[in-house]
């Protein structure tokens, strides 16, 4: 429920402006049905992606995504790698 500052790279400024124009008073990032993302819907999406990735990995005989990987851990890992560059 708190406002957050989000870094937007130069390449994504046009997309951010488009989203601001279409959603001037509300959350910019929305799901396919047009609803703002919530903790529940984001976690459900990550679970779905992990299941699909694990099915594909199993079909190739490769290890899948660990059960412990969550939306939070993915975000934390991404930012940690990004800051370290």
- Helix content estimate: 40-55%
Shape: globular
Low-confidence blocks of residues: none
Q: How far is it from the N-terminal to the C-terminal residue, by CA?
A: 31 Å
The H-and-E topology, N to C, reads as: HHH
Radius of gyration from the CA trace? 16 Å
Taking all residues together, what is the mean pLDDT? 86
Q: Tell me the structural class.
A: mainly alpha
Number of alpha- plus pi-helical segments: 3
Major sheet details: none
Instruction: State the total count of DSSP E strands.
Output: 0
Task: Assess the beta-strand content as a share of residues.
Answer: under 5%
Account of the protein in words:
There is one protein chain. With 85 residues, this protein is mainly α. Helices cover 54% and strands 0% of the residues. It has three helices and no strands. The chain has helices spanning 13-22, 39-60, 71-84. The protein is globular, with a radius of gyration of 16 Å. The two termini are 31 Å apart. The mean pLDDT is 86.
Task: Provide the fold topology.
Elements lengths: L12 H10 L16 H22 L10 H14 L1
